[in-house]
Amino acid sequence: xxxxxxxxxxxxxxxxxxxxxxFSIFLILMILGLGAGGIVYLKFGDEISACKERADQIVAQxxxxxxxxxxxxRIYDSSGQVIGIINTGHYExxxxxxxxxxxxxxxxxxxxKRFYKHHGVDFIxxxxxxxxxxxxxxxxTQGGSTITQQVIKNxxxxxxxxxxRKITEIFAAPQMEEKYSKADILEFYCNTxxxxxxxxxxxxxxxxxxNKEAKDLTVWEAATLAxxxxxxxxxxxxxxxxxxxxxxxxxxxxxxxxxxxxxxxxEEAKAQPLTVAKVTEEGTKETYQSSYAVHxxxxxxMKNDGFEFEYTFADETAYNDYKERYxxxxxxxxxxxxxxxxxxxxxxxxxxxxxxxxxxxxxxxKFTDVSDNGKYALQGAAVCIDNRTGYVVxxxxxxxxxxxxxxxxxxxxxxxxxIKPLIDYAPAFETGYYYPSRIVNDHxxxxxxxxxxxxxxxxxxxxxxxxxxLNTVAWQVLADIGVDxxxxxxxxxxxxxxxxxxxxxxxxxIGGFTExxxxxxxxRGYSVLANGGMYSNNTCITGxxxxxxxxxYQENQPEERIFTxxxxxxxxxxxxxxxxxxxxxxxxxxLSIPAAGKTGTTNSSKDxxxxxxxxxxxxxxxxxxxxxxxxxxxxxxxxxGKIWYDFMKQCNEGLPAEDWVMPSTVAYYNVxxxxxxxxxxxxxxxxxxxxxxxxxxxxxxxxxxxQKMKEENARxxxxxxxxxxxxxxxxxxxxxxxxxxxxxxxxxxxDEATQEMISQGQSMLDLLAGTEQYDALKQQFDEAAxxxxxxxxxxxxxxxxxxxxxxxxHEARPGEAPSSTEDVxxxxxxxxxxxxxxxxxxxxxxxxx
Length: 849
Known about the structure:
Among the domains are: 16-61 and 95-192, Biosynthetic peptidoglycan transglycosylase-like (Penicillin binding protein transpeptidase fold), CATH 1.10.3810; 360-536 and 551-665, 3-Layer(aba) Sandwich (Beta-lactamase); 708-811. Helices cover 45% and strands 10% of the residues. The radius of gyration is 37 Å and the shape is globular.
């Protein structure tokens, strides 16, 4: 067939085909909105020439092996040693003779109706796409790429929608069809497509979804696969069955319209339910190192595609929208990496990894209970960052190495008091209104948290409060500076466990997150303190090489200023006391070189933490159960602290005892009994920052305005509560007075209780003064009272009283039925405390250990 086709070529055809290519370039320029064709061609002539050269090179160097499964993804540690090989284990290349004709037809009907008529580029399709673009005011509703172009894109080019890529495709496609037959190209297409759920190639997809070979696919099964590969994230039948079904049926309709099916065959295929088998085979197991490396690499590829990461959300809608977009993009990139063809170079240090893993395994070795899933019940996780580079150098996701679930970056747990330096004290130091010596009253207060052991110390400095891990002080500090202000710093440090429900949640001051924090995030947060307030965007990735696209890693990872150098230094100085002061919750965990750290323990010790750092390394450690379970008598210092101490002692061994250098804008000053600066010799000094003090002066007006607004809001709330209580009291008084009037009008004589009833009625009437009901009820009451007072007087014995209205009792007479009390509420209006937490919320604790 090839020879016969070539014989029909005329000299005119040889001349005209390049002209068609040039015409298509002008059309693409129009589609991409780049302006008038001729002007743009002059402007981009060099780029177009480069596209032609690139296309020539692609076709000249292409070989059949290019269209088979990519090589395994390999992961390397910092020394270049392979630490992971990712191989999904299912790939099989199948020739076109073993691919169902139904699938071939489905692809042609869906992607390229003129596949057997064009020579690589469908100029009619391009023109149609251009017209649709104009009709839809710039919205792309039709694609112009042929199957041949898609094969070139999938194998040799990037997925980016760009002018350069499109022009390269157009130049290469006709040459590709000169080199390979239509059957070859369709074979390449089916074997290089991605079908979601780690299914690369039609053989693997047929097995996973339908438990059969590609040659045996029915019409509806073939249409399903064609739909998936069109957009794997959107038409994945496992994740989005309804969308996949709709896409499948649309393709079946297209097959019928193109004469590939009869109407009866079309309806029969669409009537089939979309069911999938999900047949899996064992691939290569991932380690803690390799799973984290793939995670970071996937996010790097997302960045390359322009994905914008978010960390705080205004409401549930914003959160759910972002979560859906993130999951779709992340799944696509992680599947792409796991399907092979990448070399991922990392900063992970295998020596430190071994030491960190051994520390967790040995410290928790005596806990041998196993969960139903076969894993150790008590677990631990840790992350270590090299402060000099900002890169993660070790990560352990649990006990042993057989567990593929990496708690180091996947699990979100309540961080307890380890969050205090990051959300409470460092942000507070930034304002200038708080500093290490400032005095705060440690006391139990309504709707607030409790301290560990229910101990309260009265007036204490911020320094002592943080070293003792006093919950009430941390709560007051965050409430004072504002929850939104404190969480804004977690946002800047890219904490991923922030919920929209936490936007005004004061319990975050002591670790009461709705979702929790990752060990990775805690390590990165403490590394900011260790690095003078600077946040590093480095992860563990130092290079990503694609088999087809070359180097994909953008090494440009600028640091970001989170806290001032002054704040970082003062918080670090305070946290040294956690390890060195006798009352510090981590006392005894000090190293032979300067170090700082913080313990964390949640309610009933369900989560225990230790986060700390030296000039060289930052390490965060978590110990707890996968399903939160109380650990009586266990605190952050107990096991998490021991793991931290043993590991940090090893990794800092032999390094100079380097301390943090005090910034020129920080100095020691004498402090008085109130913790304030004084010129007097008091025998006590502490740190103050001139930068922070300037911030306080600059923001004093704003601060005063905010405080005034808070006071006005509190006053308004109290006034509203008073009005609400008064309104409720008047409503109850009106109901009670109406009931009493009825009682008075029903009397046949008066006795000692009659005058008491009249007095109670007058009291209730007084409460109604100024209301719309007052005049009518006053007239009714006066008439009833006058009538009662005119009745003859009789002595009666008084039986037990019966309540007939709000605060009113009536003595039942012999033979008289009790009055109904249904739907009558208490006469005591509820007292509303301005600023009280709804629902009588009591904060989590103890976070103090």
